[in-house]
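Extended Data, record 2Fe-2S ferredoxin-type domain-containing protein
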Amino acid sequence: MASLTLNSQPLEIRLPDDTPLLWALRDAANLTGTKYGCGTGECGACTVIVDGQAMPSCTLSLGEAEGRSVTTIEGLSPDRSHPVQQAFVAEQAIQCGFCTPGLIMAAAALLAHNSDPSEADIAAALPHVCRCGVQPRLVRAVQRAGHILRGQEHAAPLPAPTTATTPGF
């Protein structure tokens, strides 16, 4: 049995310690926003925030999550008002939606530590696999969310990122 803080609430999960956190979230906590993609931590669909850091929940065991604070997409903002969620909608950075929760969680973790990331910072923090081609809009969404978090208003959309400085996008 593992004890952790999940979305700001203490929780005990009665599963073996070697259970991937992803399955504990989905099966025991009934939080299905975190998605299974590759099972190796490469695609990013299962990204959650653990003690302030974006982490793949498919490779983190429940035992490794013991005593830690975990935030899922459901806990980021129950009413979807988090600046990253709002910016993803405003910039139309959502296509099929499968990898969106992981992207949003990674972006939120990045912006919590750096509210003015460069395109290179964004590319490094969000190396997710998204086959829908939202990468340029994704960069704009993260930049817009940073503007919101810094209290800056902008009437016009942010300029499109250059492809030369966005490796992996």
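Summary. Confidence is low (pLDDT under 50) at residues 153-159, 164-169.
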